[in-house]
Design goal:
Layout (H helix, E strand, L loop, with lengths): L5 H17 L6 H13 L7 H32 L3 H26 L1 H14 L7 H39 L25 H45 L16 H59 L9 H39 L11 H17 L15 H22 L1
Helix pairs in contact: 1-5, 2-6, 2-7, 3-4, 3-7, 4-7, 4-8, 6-7, 6-9, 7-8, 7-9, 8-9, 8-10, 8-11, 9-10, 9-11
Length: about 425
């Protein structure tokens, strides 16, 4: 990856230093896990040229490992034809590889915007410049993020381990000339003979692990970004409902008009800061959508086929080929992980839509009703109306502009996957 501009580098170092001093992200398990996986892939913030060089080499290794997996799976699919059971099994792996390549390609194309977005989150989201109530909202976001990312990672790691254990268990009791690999290798080499077998086995496991990491790390990051963006909208709701750092009980109708006018001016100053934050959050969501909109579309299209094929392997594949318990465990982890991934992905997008829309509702809870009808009071009421109108257009992630992603999308994908599964079952069983 080419060098980042000097402005972005300065922003990275300043944001990281401030975050470390305040300890904002060191206690966030979801952020630590996501950054660790992104560093393995080679697409994360670099504080200096040495670390950036490491990221570049890591990214090159990631691409090589994934291309090796693509070569193995496509050759396996070619030589497995027309055995539908083996082709369906290989198709599951190919779909995952296609999604990994799509994610890497899109993020690499938008790498500068991607890094700038991370810097923005370090500066504006991942810090502790909040009051007690806002910190409670942030802690709630961190708790949900930790649950989501832990669940996704557990299913992904379980799938990877099951892929590795399947040949190990199958090789128990076999002689050295009849050993199997995690994936079929159609090459003119003595693959079952040492040390060729051990070398190919290690290469396949390394490629498998990197594919698994790439498959979940971008989803982890996108889920984290959506949840934190939704939390920022919740924090903004709290600030709009408490303009002027006060509540309605502190505003007495018996106060002098001068005191009420000063209070209205203070509310308007606080309101202007909230408007700037609202504009920044909207801009952030637009930039997030520009980077990930193609990936979101790919997810929606692939999830239906993937859930259908993996479910087909779990329930029906024994018609063609016997399924060992280890391989069936692989399919179980795979389908549970895919369902959790789809649910949490759409849940985070739905939360972004809901919280950005609730900005207008939060304004009604503010102290504007107690303000005098002077110049500042009328101006504040007029501008509050504009914010209410703007909040009706929610911030969201779209599938390449075709439709916004929400929890309704999850039900649509599952319904489509069930239709595909029913068609396969009636056609081939």
């Amino acid at each position: 990856m080419r060098k980042i501009s000097e402005e972005v580098k300065v922003g990275v170092m300043s944001a990281r230093s401030k975050a470390v001093k305040k300890g904002s992200h060191t206690k966030d398990f979801a952020l630590l896990m996501t950054s660790f996986l992104m560093k393995i892939v080679g697409l994360w913030l670099a504080k200096d040229s040495k670390e950036e060089r490491k990221r570049r080499y890591t990214l090159i290794y990631t691409v090589v490992a994934i291309l090796f997996g693509v070569w193995v799976q496509f050759r396996d699919f070619y030589y497995s034809w027309p055995n539908f059971g083996d082709c369906a099994y290989t198709a599951c792996n190919i779909l995952c590889l296609i999604m990994v390549l799509l994610k890497l390609f899109v993020v690499f194309i938008h790498r500068k915007e991607f890094i700038e977005l991370l810097v923005y989150m370090y500066k504006n989201f991942w810090h502790l410049n909040y009051d007690c109530n806002e910190l409670l909202l942030l802690q709630d976001c961190r708790r949900i993020s930790t649950i989501c990312i832990t669940l996704i990672n557990f299913c992904a790691q379980g799938t990877i381990v099951s892929y590795v254990l399947t040949p190990i268990i199958a090789n128990i009791g076999r002689n050295s000339s009849d050993r199997v690999l995690p994936f079929n290798m159609w090459v003119d080499l003595p693959l079952s003979v040492s040390p060729t077998y051990e070398i190919v086995f290690v290469l396949q496991v390394l490629s498998l692990y990197h594919v698994g990491v790439c498959y979940i790390c971008f989803d982890n990051l996108l889920c984290l970004m959506n949840l934190h963006a939704a939390t920022q909208f919740r924090i903004l709701q709290y600030r709009l409902s408490n303009l002027g750092d006060t509540n309605r009980k502190q505003v007495d109708d018996n106060e002098s008009s001068a005191a009420l006018s000063r209070f209205a001016e203070n509310c308007y100053k606080a309101f202007k800061n909230c408007v700037r934050q609202h504009q920044n959050h909207i801009t952030y969501c637009h930039r997030l959508n520009e980077i990930f909109t193609v990936i979101v579309l790919g997810h929606i299209l692939v999830f239906s086929l993937l859930i259908c094929l993996v479910g087909f392997q779990v329930l029906v594949s024994r018609t063609w080929t016997p399924v060992t318990p280890a391989r069936r465990l692989t399919f179980v982890f795979h389908i549970v992980g895919s369902l959790c991934q789809l649910l949490l992905f759409t849940y985070s997008c739905d939360g972004l839509i809901e919280e950005s829309t609730n900005i207008g509702t939060a304004i009604y809870l503010g102290p504007w009703i107690h303000l005098p009808m002077d110049k500042a009071g009328r101006r504040l009421r007029r501008d509050l109306t504009m914010v209410i109108v703007r909040s009706r257009k929610s911030s969201c992630l779209t599938a390449s502009g075709f439709f916004p992603v929400s929890l309704e999308t999850c039900t649509t994908v599952l319904s489509t996957a069930m239709s595909y599964f029913t068609l396969l079952r009636h056609s081939f069983v």
